[in-house]
Fold this protein.
Amino acid sequence: MFERRLYYHIDWALLFAIFALCAFGVATIYSATFDPTHGASHRYVVQMYAVGLGVIAMMVMLTLDYRTFTDKSHLIYVAILAVLIYVLLFGHEGKGARRWIPLGGFNLQPSEFAKIAVALVLAKFFGENRGAPQWTDLAIGGVLTLIPLGLIAKEPDLGTAVTLLPIFLAIAYLAGMQMRILGILLLASVLAAPIAWKFALKDYQKSRISTFIDPSLDAKGAGYQQIQARITVGSGGLTGKGFRQGTQGQLRFLPEVDNDFIFSVLAEEHGFAGVLVALGLYLFVILRALEAARLAKDRLGSYLVLGVLASFTFQVVYNVTMSAGLAPVKGLTLPLMSYGGSSMIATLAGFGLILNVRMRRFTN
Amino acid sequence: MAIVEDRRRVTTRLTFLQYLITVVFSVLAVSFWVLQVVQHAKFEEMAENNHQRTLPLRAPRGLVLDRDGKVLVENRQSYSISIDRERSKDLNRTIRLLAAVLGIDEAGVRTIVDRHRREPTYRPITIVQDATLAQVAAVRARRLDTELPDVVVEQVPTRQYPETKGAHLFGYVGEVSDAQVAAGDAGLKSGDIVGQSGIEKIYNAMLMGEDGARRVVVNSVGREIRTLEEDQPTEGHRLQLTIDIDVQGAIEDSFDVLGFNGAAVVLDPMSGDVLGFTSRPAYDPNAFAAGIDRVTWASLTSDEDRPLNDRAIQGRYSPGSTFKMAVATAALQEGVITPDFKVHCTGGATFYGRPFKCWKKGGHGTVDLRHAIEQSCNVYFYTIGNMTGIDKIHKWATLLGLGEKSGIDLPNEVQGLVPSPEWKQQYRKEKWYAGETVSVSIGQGSVSVTPVSMAVYAATLANGGTRVTPHLLKAVDDGSGWKPVPPPPPRSKAPLDPVKLQAIRDGLWMVVNQAGTGHNAILKGYDVSGKTGTAQVISNQGKERAGKTDKDLRDNGWFVFFAPRDNPQIAGVVFLEHGVHGSNAALVAHHVLDTFFAKKEARPMPPRPEFKANLVP
């Protein structure tokens, strides 16, 4: 099954960049969660285990031809929908949301894996059609995206739910969706915004958006994190305050330092130099993955790569923007760096698929 | 065909995505560059403000000592509890919780916060001064729970007056008022504790010292992580007063025993050193030290006896017979009479068609100056006063210190009044009547004096005419050792003829040591000289008209004194409000003199007196 020559086609450069980012993440988690009275938190160790599990997941994704996965994508998709419903009904509750399935000391977050399932099923769906997708194709693809999106949004986890949209848009775009339609979709969403504001958004979400526009409106409440994020990043300067020397993160002026705001801590402790290194690595990973999409031997492969990459890229860009206080605060983690097992495993599994497509570009 | 087209489109669109992503990342990098490099200084300062706090270290006020080095005013450590609004997320919640934790009225806390609302938020608002240990413990526990991260417990040195004597002398301290801050003297800032009266006020700049500061690192819930630097506070200067705590104690004890309100000032007649200074009723300055509570304050301000009023420098009273020495001085110095000038007293006399009574119904017979002073014969002084005239009486009374400010180093001294035709014309728009001079001659009419000016009067008669300036500050230690403070120069020097003056002194000696009214002050071997005065609070007719009333209408009692007669070492005045008779005031003087000389000669001090006032008018 796993032919020896395939080994030579693995994109080692991409792998190296991915693991460099993981290492950067583990180090930042170590620094951010270090407590001067109790010493290092065990979180960085947990994260290393997660990376280990992620590597296994990645290898699993490499062993089979990606077409095997897309062929079974409808099953995978249905299975993940079932799990998402299960979470809604019986999931573990925390911070006012049902997002997790407890698996003996480890809480699995199925929504992270839904991204892969959606990428697989959409790649397969659009890959089977020739020519530019028609309205009906877009409608079906949209529904396939919106079902898991709705389930995840209901947990509620609006942040993760929204990351499914780029998958659909990217694959549809690559499949040849007319720019006109894209324009109509964008226009519709702009028009829908006031309605969403009035009916769909909860008060705390509204206040996040209005304080984003003017953080000083609520400097102690919702605007607080945004102001603190800017202070954290800005005070880092060119070369940063040094490992474990950040005051904003270490003294907890910023919440979720190992999670949503891990990039802020990195920016504080390693400065603009560290930011450039991290951004450079992410950009390299994304461009390299796009290269894999270009090299793919079939459309299916290209779509799959782009689908997986779309949610990853969206999350990276949004999280980095937010961690500089330049976007409304949203519970979106930074893939590969933020603390979180499910995210790490799902992300590495996704990159397994990307490597898979590139690796098998010469096979039949 | 379609495949090729598909392939081409995929390639084009992927290329577009590549550029798009590269542009997005470039924008991100530029944004970070702006934040981290261009605006770095601003954010670095904000981060520093976030995690660094400057906590004031209150400077203890300087100690106050008596002339022998005994501590009169010191400091103790107390705790204050404040709200740091910069750290408040929900001020209302904090107020509610804090009031509950401290067990105090929420509305009260709100009032305090409202009063300081317009101040800069970095300045904590003190809610409780001098908190109990239980309150401190309760707040500290909550702080660690991060329930009240915006509440600060501060250790503050607080004024303490171990002797509850001399309240008006020391004065009291309190939080600086808005008006005082606005006046901007000595860089006062809101929340500072400053002297509000007495020594504490007049020497506030010396006593205050300089607050220090401690810069600490705090985390997001305000817990202190470590100290960055500490600037120790500088203690205020130590002041040594001229006060002799034993003399002071003798005065206070005597007032306690007698139970009268009033005032007493005792001086060294040569230097003007104030040895003892009292005003009654008094208050407990300790009650102000850590912020006076509203109930106590209200009771002090609404009390009809006006305990906050310093009678020694702010009370104006009719001097009665104690004024006679001023009239005698004027008559002698102006050559109107000689000490041997005699007047025949039949118990009254008529001047300008109006009868003037002597206090002794049958009259004193024929008396010379010495005996007139001894017997306090009114007719004698009516006569010589009338002969001398108001202008000369005014001139000499003023030279002796009456009707003038003494210049004592205490705030808000008022001026008494020795009337003159000019004064009457100016303020009453009336002509002076010669009959008024007759009343003034025995210290009645519009003459009014402050007790402190009477002490100066006694000292001036004692030392031969030098109107010393009474003063309280003897030496200052600014941290580099004690430096004596030279006594202020005398206010004036009256050219008194020693021979003529001796006649007056003889009379004063006779008041105490022979048949006079000052017998209570006698101290064998010390030639105490003095003069009583009994001044009506209300005229005889008025008294009858008032009939039965709750108001105290008893006469005021005075005793001015010095001793020994020929080499005076101590001089002063005792004033008893409604003290019925000056001889009661002489009781106080006796105990003061007894104590003073016992101490001077290292004899055992007299015990607490057991005398009783004579309440028969």
